[in-house]
Amino acid sequence: MPNFRTLDDIGKVQGKRVLVRVDLNVPMQDLAVTDDTRLRATLPTVAELADRGAIVLLLAHFGRPKGVQSPDQSLALLVQPYSAVLGRFVRFVEDCQGEEAAAAVATMNPGDVAILENTRFHVGEEENDPALARSMALLGDLYVNDAFSAAHRAHASTEGLAHLLPAFAGRAMEAELRALEKALGAPEHPVAAVVGGAKVSTKLDVLHHLVDKVDHLVIGGGMANTFLAARGVNVGRSLCEHDLAATANSILNAAEVAGCTVHLPYDVVVATEFRAHAPTRVANVHEVAADEMILDVGPAAVEALGDALKTCRTLVWNGPLGAFETPPFDTATVALARTAAALTGDGSLVSVAGGGDTVAALNQAGVADSFTFVSTAGGAFLEWMEGKTLPGVAALMQQ
C-alpha cells in the first residue's frame, strides 16, 4: 500500500490552524451551484477537523482567472452554498496569503471553518512559486490535501505546501488512493479495463500502459472504430481516426505480447444519422454500409463482455461504450455497467470507475453507488491510468 499519512496520524489538532486543499470548482448558473458533488466530497475531512477543534482553512481554486482577480471567479460566491452543505457557519477570508489574511485567521476560534480566496488569483499558484507557497504556509500549522482531482497539477497549494508543513491526506484523498491501489497498483487478477470515448488520440498513453497491467482490455466508443479500421474493417461514416491505424496495430501487438486479451465489438448498432431515437439496426462489424455510422456496441458483444467480466476479480472503467448521451446509443454502456454493479454486489468484483463521462454514464445506468469506488476526478484519474506520477500525491508520499 502506498505510504502516506492520514487524519489518523495527524495527532491533536485542537486550536491548530489546518490548511486543507479541497476542490470547490463546481458548476454554477445564476449564482446557484448546479452540482454540489465536489462540495459534499469535502465534508468528512472538514467536519472531522472542525469537530476535533481545528481552525479549518480551505484552500481552493475556482475557474481559470490566470492571476487576475475577477469577482465572478471569487470563492466568496461559494460561502453560502458551502455553508448550507456543511451545516455550519463558514467565514470568508479575502486572500489566501499575506498580512490581511493572517489578521483574519487570527480572529478565528477552534472549530471555525473559513474559505480562503481563490488560489489562482495569484500567478504564482500555477507556477508553483516557492515564495507564494511559503506565504500560504505562514497561515497554517498543518497541511491536508483532500483534492485528488487537482493532484496532477504541481501548484503551490497542491504540491509546494506539502513540503513546508506536516502534510496528510484527507478522507476523500485517502479513499481515492486506496481504491486506485486496489484497481491497478496491487489488484487481484484477472483484471479487466473498459476504455471508451470518442478518440484514440486522447487515450493513447492509457492504452499503452494498460496492456501490461490488465488481462482483458475492452475498447469501446468511437475509439473502437479506429481499431476495427486498423484491422481492415470498413466502418462506413463512423467517427474514426484512420491516420492512427499503425498506432492501433502497435497497441494490439503489444497486448498480444503481454498476454492481454483485447475485446473489440463484433456486432454493432448502426444508423445513417446521429440523433436521438434515429432508426437503427444491429449489424456484424463486417456488414456496415458505406452510409452508416457505428454508434454503440451490439447486444451479442455486450453479452460476451459480461461473461468476460464474470471471470474477473477487478475492473477499472473510463469512458462509455457508445454515444451514451443520445438514446438509444446508451444501451451497451448501461447494460455492461449493470452487470459490473451486480458482480460488485455479489462480492466477486472490485470495480473502480472515473472520469466525467464515465460518472454521467454510471448515473444514467443508476449504478454509480453500486461500484466499489467512483472517482469524480477527470484529468487526475486519466493520468493515473496512464501510469504517471501525480505531483500532489507524490508530495504526500515523501513525508
Describe what this molecule looks like in 3D.
It is a single chain. This protein is α/β, with parallel strands linked by helices and 399 residues long. The chain has 2 domains: 7-174, Rossmann fold, CATH 3.40.50.1260; 187-385, Phosphoglycerate kinase, N-terminal domain (Rossmann fold). Helices cover 37% and strands 17% of the residues. The strands form 4 sheets. Strands 5-6-4-1-7-8 form a 6-stranded parallel β-sheet, sandwiched between helices. The chain has a 6-stranded parallel β-sheet with strand order 11-10-9-15-16-17, with helices on both faces. Helix 12 packs parallel to helix 13. It is elongated and about 70 Å long. The chain starts with 16 loop residues before the first strand and ends with a helix.
> How would you name the CATH homologous superfamily of the largest domain?
Phosphoglycerate kinase, N-terminal domain
Strand order of the largest sheet: 5-6-4-1-7-8
Shape: elongated
Low-confidence stretches: none
Please give the domain count. 2
Q: Which percent bin holds the helix content?
A: 25-40%
At a glance:
This protein is of the alpha/beta class and 399 residues long. 37% of the residues lie in helices and 17% in strands.
Which key phrases capture this entry?
six-stranded parallel beta sheet, alpha/beta, Rossmann fold, 2 domains, elongated, 399 residues, 17 strands
